[in-house]
């Protein structure tokens, strides 16, 4: 997706330059056209083609108006500065109107900035109007004809990416099976990374399902199958890690990079035959993931699939220890998830060679598919914040104050290029919501700018007076900007500054002093942005993270409570949708704590605490997703029955989470988290009887135990008292 975005932006610029060159346009107008084509391409983020077209059409009059005002006000210093501040305020405030408002505000600001960059004047407006019109038309041609971006084209790519991520994760799990003590750290790091990337791919698919599928039933089907495959794959890795550990491995090992490596034991060493079978079947599972349905020929893959699905039956498990048998059970569930994924993505397949276990899995999928058709759509909660409580309104005032300071300070540094300070102040407020995030973003922009100046000096000396060579390098820099933007803001700033050095060369205004001034203006703009964020309606990082932490905990409680209720015989709800909301909130929290976990932070203990909290929440989210996936099977499954006793088991978890939420949001300081006895022991006392490792009830209890442990674990770093018998913990 980054590749396509980069190609789309570069393609629009290239087409604009070609058309302007054929019209024998001078270099200044070509620079204006290239910059306008760039902003008119990257600013539009809407998914549907019709929405993109409407926004692009509205963007042209906005751009013409901004260019006109920039040209007319360039000699009126005070009036021009006041308008620029108002424009910045409006551009940020427009974000409240969604993607279209954000795009139009960005186009207005950036085109006004272009007018300052090329020193637009009134007499030059007709030529500039023509240039802007050409840039927008070229952007439309590339967007809708050359490199189209539609959900129906993006979703298949995301599906293939998910397959690839799933195969990578399973290949790493195969390495984990045979990794020696010296290699275990590296394999675990790979396992964590591939697990996180698989989760990221799953969330990206979920974000494109509504527009990329023909109806809600198809979207729900793909969402469920993707979630099942992700959960099954992550569970298989946990079971392998547990099987090769001397003691039962802690789930947090999969989510915390600096978690202690479990001690390896001999649980696999005395079971060479079972190990050989497991190694063979992991390779077979990897083959099932990698092969597409059209490539299936003969009965070989059918036999492999049947053998793996047979591990869902207790009678087909190899003779081995309980931990190793759990891995084979996980293998069977992973094979089932892969079969469901193939059915959802590739359609019906040949059933002539099915075994009874495969037939049972297909019948389960058919029952689930019927239930999806009647599922109710959940409504997104409305944002009831008003006035200064709205993030867009607060940010608009902050960036307006910061930009005013940047204009004043920038004028002292340079009366010609003061706008670089304003641009930096504007940029550091994009996609940030707290003073800590603004500080980190300003630091990254400054680092990237300094390195970009060095590159700009080298590139400017390299191209000399060769105009088209400079334009070619500009295009490479622009591609680098958009390809690296989601990965590293410092890299994006590096390519931006290197590009500016080349643009100054094209405009015959290049000098080393200009690039040094760029560093000074960037530092000033970042400082003004930070000052504006601190002095005007500040949102401190602590408050921001506490609010998001409270949101994550509330959504965790909602998922767990709804899943336990459905497992206890309650009404069916959209559990996977609730789990997706939990993942979204967790991603927002993970982004918001970056200032606390950044390497430059001097608070080392706080950094470790923040990372530990997020790792615990990721562990809880994994178990909540697993509960949700299991609970959704209850209404129509022949093998999973509701158990009313589970309601009691989940009640304490919900109460403990409510207590954490009240403490985090400072609503109450009363109460203690109840650690109590293990959930398995509670159900045993209620008459649950002996629980076998392979039963669904045991799996549900295991997830509830881990959730209980995770919630109690969250209480300690949050300074919430914990009560209950000492030494009571889930086994």
UniProtKB/TrEMBL annotation:
One term under GO cellular component: plasma membrane
Subcellular compartments: Cell membrane
Annotated spans, Disordered: 346-365
TM ranges: 65-89, 101-122, 128-147, 395-413, 419-439, 446-464, 523-539
Main location: membrane
Integral membrane bound transporter domain residues: 406-531
Membrane topology, as annotated: Multi-pass membrane protein
Superkingdom of the organism of origin: Bacteria
Keywords: Cell membrane, Membrane, Transmembrane, Transmembrane helix
Keyword Chaperone: no
InterPro entries referenced in this protein's UniProt entry, alphabetically: Memb_transporter_dom
Similarity annotation: Belongs to the YccS/YhfK family.
Protein name: Membrane protein
Organism encoding this protein: Streptomyces glebosus
